[in-house]
Amino acid sequence: MSNDIAYFAVKSIGLSQIHGRKPCCLRDAARHNLREIQSELGANGSIDATKTIKNWVIAGSKTSDGVLLMMQEMATAAGVDLSQKRRDYCQAIELLFSMPEKSEIESSLYFQKCLRWAEEAYALPVLSAVAHLDESSPHCHILLLPLDRDGKYVGCKPIEKPETKRHKESFFTQVASPAGLKRQGGKLVGQVKQAALAIILKRCTAQGLPSANGVLWPFFEAAIRKDPVRVLEALDIDKNALNAEYKARIADQFNPKGIDSTDQKMQTLSSVGVAHPSTIGNAGHLRKQEGIRRLAGASQGKQTAEKKLTQCSRQKRREFVLDELPTDVLTRVKDEYVHDLSPWDE
Predict the structure, then answer these.
(1) pLDDT in tens, 325-343
(2) Scanning 176, 268, 273, 289, which has its CA 20 to 30 A from the CA of 50?
(3) What is the pTM of this model?
């Protein structure tokens, strides 16, 4: 873990198992945060029971029963009957703030700033805020009741992707960056990762690194292929270069077989027939037509194939399009917290 990285993540607390997630009720989350689960304090866990005394409750009750009572009182005061909600409703929203393992920043001041920011950014009642110093990295759990200022139950809406992206930018601008911490890194996936590797290996070859390192180069290359993020930063490869490489690879990927793109007359180089030039549009049209031919089988019609292609294209846009990424040029698969596994292990 880098010594200057701040982590911030959100999740809903509830019994939903959608996408294979691990259900967690508010009682269990509060019990974990307040260290009421005795089995977590054993020698096999990540919690150092000898340091638990250093934890502190920043806001809310010191017991899980108190947290549940506060939830019920707030809901009743707002006229919300939680017993009428579906079984897997969002019981709370949990925010997790983590500091580097070894940091000169005063954790108590930092987590208090995190709490004040959360109260203003989310505008939801705080059920509990607990700081943990008994695991590998200092971190803070904040549980919010999903009731807005008008007393309306909002469920998981405050942590939908657009909102979460906006909140993360706000947090790192207002809290983490002024404290001297940087944004967390990310993992590259799919064609983005392949584009990054292509740029890095070209740069390494140009600098003569493979020959200079001899028999050690395969080991360096394996490490680069496993996680090229830090190498991108070390070589000062910016977002524009990565974007250009990615788009070039995507364009090559959807160039139909048997068509010579250098010939304006669109001459075929194989026995695969080519449509009349007047029926061939731009690259997007070619991609769509080629995709429909691949997806449409003997038992599938064109309509089904187009639907699948559209779904596939939307998924690719969500995962790989770099134009929508922040300036650190990274797309994360999932935020990872090795130091706090109980309510966050999905």
Answers:
(1) 333 333 333 333 333 333 3
(2) 176
(3) 0.60
